[in-house]
Amino acid sequence: MKRIEVWADMVCAWAYIGKRRLEKAGFGEDVEIVWHPFQIDPMAPATAEPLYEALRAPVADGALQACHPDLTPAENRVRVSLVAAEEGLGPPWGAVWRPNTFDAHRVIALAYQRGGPALQDAVVERILRAHFIEAADIGDRATLVALAAEAGLDGMAGALDAGEGASEVRSQLLRGKAIGVATSPTYVVGGTAVAGAQSPEVLRDLVRQAAPERELPDEVRLLRQAESLLDVRDPLGALRTLEPLLANHGDDPAVRLLAARAYFGSAQLTRARETLESLLDRAPGDHYARFLLGRTLERANRHVEALPHLRLAAVMSPDPGYTDALRRVESRVP
């Protein structure tokens, strides 16, 4: 069975339009559709504010751009209402609240855990309709509990109060960031992704042509995710991804080196230094660990201590970055 992963935010109108187009593609039971979280406005307040007020703030344009990067926010607002009507959405049409969607994503994740893709689809539909057609505040927990119950998912009041789904949503947000999801909606099948509310024909082609994703052990998957998060400059996200690996495979040099990189990237210099020193005790010839230790000491303004490590790294590897760092530190040491 092939799986379509839909990464989307419940306040993105193109996500609702994309859902209708996904339904028109007519996939049968041999295709599973799973919704994953994306937040175009993660800094939205815990208590929703009127959308007309939020749209006057310059930061709103940046958030709206993540909903359709090919259009200006003004163009997006005009076009989306026309396209929504073409897809049979509304009238009425148009959100009136700027909610934080983290709890909505928790409910959607719990719907999949408790009832699979069919229940999750019903919950997603109910939340989207509430936001765009019924002018409801989907950031309000009581509203979410009622919407979930209408879709067939009970028990959300206790689940939300108990924190259920929060860890799953945070993990999925990190995974989406690691695989390059930057737009709502984004469809992923295997290792292939397309962004935007694509036509049914494009979605059918995606499923037909995408190669199946190779299953990886959890340890390898988490390691690669942490590497990707470091590549996009999210060291704290990388550390959160590495938590289970550090707990269960904390002596593995690859895990520890990634952790050291994340500590360095997040300015946790003492932890970075201690981790790198323990790695070099076991493998003194590791030129990258040696270089990173030198950089860590340099960043802590311990230039004299950094110098021998950077000299060794430059001798062991011709990497020009090593030489540049060495020259920089040498210029600061009398």
TrEMBL record:
Gene3D superfamilies: Glutaredoxin, Tetratricopeptide repeat domain. Residues 4-206 form the DSBA-like thioredoxin domain. Keywords: Isomerase. One of its GO terms (molecular function) is isomerase activity. It holds the Pfam family DSBA. Coiled coil: none annotated. This is Dithiol-disulfide isomerase involved in polyketide biosynthesis-like protein. It comes from Streptosporangium roseum (strain ATCC 12428 / DSM 43021 / JCM 3005 / KCTC 9067 / NCIMB 10171 / NRRL 2505 / NI 9100).
